[in-house]
Amino acid sequence: MIGYISDNLLLPILDFFYGLVPSYGLAIIALTVVIRLALFPLSAGSIRSARRMRIAQPVMQKRQAEIKAKFANNPAKQQEELGALMKEFGSPLAGCLPLLVQMPILFALFATLRGSPFADVPYTLNLKVLPADQIATVEAKPFNSPSHSIFVTATSHVPVIASLEQGTKLGVGDQQSVTLHTRDGASFASVLADVQDGEAFTPSWSVTKGEGVVSVDANGTITALAPGDAVVEAKIPGLAARSGFLFIKALGQVGFYTDGAVNWDIAILVAAFGASLFASQILSGMGMPPNPQQATANKITPVMITAMFLFFPLPAGVLLYMVVANIFQALQTFLLTREALPDNLQQILDQQLSQQTVAATATGAGSQRLPFEPNKGKK
Prior knowledge:
The protein is an alpha+beta fold. Among the domains are: 2-113, no CATH class; 121-236, no CATH class. It is built from eleven helices and 13 strands. It has helices at residues 2-20, 24-38, 40-70, 75-89, 96-114, 132-135, 188-193, 264-284, 292-311, 316-336, 343-368; strands spanning 121-130, 143-144, 148-153, 156-164, 169-171, 175-177, 179-182, 204-209, 214-216, 221-224, 228-236, 257-258, 261-262. It is elongated.
């Protein structure tokens, strides 16, 4: 499903924007904004639900405890009262459904930006080599890899599959060629023959595991050398993987620290991601009573996630998408926190803020009393 969404929805939109403005960086930004606008009603529902539950949760927990204690011996009445409570304030799970609905599209967008044209596309083949006397008893089952859309020009891409006709199990001494072809059966080589500078997309072959078990030549022919497990990888260059944008040296560049040098463009993108995530969390608490535990989480979570992405192998183009998506999310959160609440929730929020003000005033007054002064509140 993710591949279908990517091929039939996201890539055509990407082609359209690249046709308007021939910049892959701007195309990523435009694609991200379009998808986020399309998902705005769903994500808005999740933000609204989270905001309302944050206000109603203390009251709901208290009411739930009272209902369960009062109707402990009457399960039917207890369920009826709990249902009425959910109807009054809404279900805590109400915000989960919009998130689940939009996840396939967001995963497809993420997968699209990790593949061609923004990054080199790998095809991984897990192989098992058996002794020659054992391979005869193994039934050959053809293997087909997942399809990946490969850009061969700025606006032209073809779905490419890697196949092994005899399957992934070989006998010692056997040879088998990996076939790269389109869904229609045309070889990838024939596709490149009709493309100007098509040799730039010629795949590279390597053994990433089990070098003594198999070997592979430049044409994708695998030779089984010894029993064991091995992994062969074919990598097709991404058209825009080495294209820059603004301060980004290459959209397909991966890693904060490579070859003994710091990639400062990756560092800036990761820092921008952390800052935008922090801003979004702060905005989600606007107008709410202070919550020490939530405040601590708002500080720690962006730091932890940002630190993780410093060393998580994501292409610069994906990080660019994440920054733009977070900025959009922060703006959306800001707008939705200014919406009027239902009357019952607004009343609860006013009470919570009033209680917080009274508590703060009492704390401040108490701190001004000298140690030797009597407590005037006691009689």
